[in-house]
Amino acid sequence: MNEHTGTAFRKSSAEITKGPIEVLTLSESDVTECIDLRELLNVLAEGFKALSLGKVVNPERPQLDIPQAGYCLVMPAWMDGMHMTVKIVNVFERNLTQDIPSHIATIHLFDPHTGLPVCIMDGTYITAVRTSGSAVLSVRELARKDAKVATVVGAGVQANQHLRLLPLVREFDEIRVVSKYFEDAERIARLHPGIRAMADIEAAVRTSDVVCLATHSYEPVLKAEWIRPGTHVSSVGVAPPRGEMPTDLIRNSSLYVETRDSFKPTPVGCSELAAIDPTSGIELGAMLLGHQPGRISNVYRHVLSHQKLSARFPTGLTYLVQYDSTTFVSDTIKEVLKTLGEAFVLVVLVVFLFLGNLRATVIPAVAVPVSLIGAFAVLLVLGYSANTVSLLALVLAIGIVVDDAIVVIENVERVIEEEPELSIAAATKKAMAEITGPIIAGVLIDRTGDFFWAFAVTAIVGVLGAASWIFIVGPLEQIPWKQSASSFLPATSTGSP
Asked: Residue 46 burial by CB count (10 A; 0-12/13-18/19+): exposed, middle or buried?
């Protein structure tokens, strides 16, 4: 205590030493044990939201190049209420020849009030699951709800983590993996039960609803025309100057990015986005916050990339589809399938329960798919689409088909019962003569415009196809199980009893 001033003595900076500091150290196994993958995706979602709201301070990462060896990336970040964090990632590709991972990372935490080190942990596993986690999070939020097939392109660390995370966000019917070398795809598939390795990347991509690129390719690994409308595509590979993603696919799709910095030159940004207008991209966090649209249609391609027209928009102008008719068509198709199932149930109830004849059930039941297949085949040939009107026509055709089938069977049975002296062939011929005209009249629909012509074609072909089936096969229902086909042969023919 200073007796003159009454204040405590203050040490000079020269007298202050840091002394021993306890720093928590976490190994790769410690980190792996601490991370719950499902919770990781939720934490990433919150992190992207904070990033889009400007709550995260993350300066551009510098790159230190080691000629002919590799490079080092330093990524600092801080958010209020959190520790200051610095991740250091060293990328040395030739490590793989020594059985050492090509990406080596550590993460350092510092007290935001004093700057003292708090923790140093292995960052290799975190880097792998965080990178793949952002791609899989985009699948969870942006892929079609009815997506059933996913393909991972690559067979390295990122592909491995994609295969672990994808089953957590969707119930895919099939998850595939393809690689430059098929044996690599087979090896990684063996690590994940149920994963299918494929040799043909084009065949795999063309039939997928979700495509995740996870390679270190310096050239695009697929072509834009392989991606069918409605497919969600993600990319995490970094390999300038071109990278794994074709730029024409990005330009013709809805683009989502982790951050606007993705449009900056490497090493900060993504090389594939170098020639892309930054205003065409939507931040993943902004979409999660509801500030920007997510999936607006099941027919637009999503590339974690904006429509062609957006490139012509003035700066600051965007677009939003207020009404998406494709969802209505999708629901209508579901109703058609539901009606088809109901038609089969009605056939069983009406024909079997009321007529008590199991054989009579088969012909109307088969007539329904015959009607549908014939209708869609003719629509395809004529170039008509399955619009809401043609789908409605299919619903009507299903009902007409079932009704006509029952009419044919009931009428043949009636003639046989009322005139037992007639042979089965004669009774069938008489019954069909009575009802052929009314059935044909019932399927003739007048043409009124192209739109309703599609309706008419669907209804006519559907009913005519089924009617043909009924006329040909329906009378056969009346033949006893042990009776030969001689009933329909000329009198001079013979057959076994």
From this structure: exposed
325-484 is a CATH 1.20.58.100 domain: no
Instruction: Using alpha carbons, select from 137, 147, 91 the residue that is nearest to residue 257.
Output: 137
Give φ, ψ of 182 to 5 degrees: -60, -35
| 368 close to 347: Cβ distance less than 8 angstroms | yes
Could you read off the pLDDT of 289-328 as tens digits, one per residue? 988 888 765 544 555 533 334 444 555 555 555 555 556 6
CA–CA distance, 474 with 415 (Å, rounded to integer): 14
134-312 maps to CATH 3.20.20.20: no
Q: Which residues pair with 255 in a beta bridge?
A: 281
* Model pLDDT, residue 270: 84
> Which residues on adjacent β-strands are paired with residue 106?
88, 122
| 21 burial via Cβ count (<10 Å: 0-12, 13-18, 19+) | exposed
pLDDT band at residue 110 under the 50/70/90 scheme? very high
pTM for this prediction: 0.60
Percent of the chain with pLDDT over 70: 71
Which CATH entry fits the domain spanning 23-126: 3.30.450.20, 3.30.1780.10, 3.40.50.2300, 1.10.10.10? 3.30.1780.10
SS3 108: strand
pLDDT at position 141: 93
